[in-house]
Specification:
heterodimer, A: 73 residues, mainly alpha, 2 helices, 38% helix, rod-shaped, B: 207 residues, alpha+beta, two-stranded antiparallel sheet, 25% helix
């Protein structure tokens, strides 16, 4: 009986080792960019992490740096 | 917020490849993979035009439509991203993309094609924003830092514009008004619909 139990346990352990993890397909979710970043040292200072409105506004202002007609008359 | 978009002003691009270098440096892109490249039309002929090309983050992205494992997703800002943990490197997206954006590293055993790599609009991927895992797979997440893509911010002539579609279209429109030429934006219609940047919208046209 004891021998049989050991055999069953060993077989189960071996079969589990041969198993495969589930691999779900498709998009698994992403944090919004406005929620901020773990690398806080690189964050631009003119908006607050988690505040989408301030993030959008900061990007709009930053995009104007590409407009050289606002830098020169 | 409107959608994030790229505009390359062919009247201004001087083929310096600063955008290509900025991208490779920012994301530590491996050798042989170019998320962005500069293409010159009629090279050497007077009137030649150069354009900087990468993923345009299309409104109706064909790569998303053909992916057999559905690894692509679109953020709220309209940035087309993909999950490298799901990608099987089949290459369907590279056949579907009109801009040749998807890139495949060939450093595996026997030069086997690896997982697809492409421009992320400096928005990383599905890993936690700013994490090491995100950087290693997708590069820096500048959008989560409140910055715009490095290629556009580094462009010396400001030929390459990136950001909120309305803002960059306004910048481009003011340029066209000043110089009175060069209103055509290469790739804009293909990526975002028939409407040209800086032109008044037509009834029923896709934006």
């Amino acid at each position: 009986m004891k021998y049989m139990l050991c055999t069953v346990l060993a077989s189960t352990a071996l079969l589990v080792a041969c198993g495969e993890k589930a691999q779900p397909l498709g998009f698994r979710g992403d944090e919004p960019a406005s929620s901020g970043t773990a690398s806080a040292g690189f964050k631009a200072s003119d908006w607050k992490a988690g505040d989408k409105t301030s993030w959008e506004q900061a990007l709009r202002v930053r995009a104007q740096n590409q407009n050289d007609y606002v830098k020169t008359p | 917020m409107a959608r994030m978009k790229f505009i390359c002003d062919a009247e201004r691009c001087i083929e310096c490849n600063g955008c290509v270098t900025a991208c490779k440096n920012e994301h530590e892109v491996p050798w042989g993979v170019n998320r962005r490249r500069v293409v010159t039309l009629n090279d050497g002929v007077p009137g030649e035009k150069s354009i900087s090309v990468a993923c345009m983050h299309c409104s109706d992205a064909p790569c998303m439509a053909v992916c057999p494992v559905n690894c692509f997703y679109k953020t709220d800002e309209g940035v087309v991203l993909h999950d490298k943990d799901v990608c099987i490197g089949c290459g369907y997206c590279s056949y579907a993309c009109p801009f040749g954006a998807p890139q495949f590293p060939a450093q595996g055993t026997f030069g086997v094609r690896g997982k697809m790599d492409k421009c992320t609009f400096c928005a990383g991927g599905p890993e936690a924003n700013g994490s090491q895992a995100e950087f290693e797979k997708y590069g820096r997440n500048r959008l989560a830092e409140g910055k715009l893509p490095a290629c556009a911010e580094m462009c010396s002539t400001k030929a390459l514009l990136a950001g909120d579609g309305d803002v960059v279209a306004d910048i481009f429109r003011s340029r066209v008004m000043k110089r009175n030429k060069g209103a055509e934006v290469w790739g804009w219609g293909t990526a975002y619909g028939a409407k040209q940047a800086g032109q008044p919208s037509k009834e029923g046209a896709k934006s």
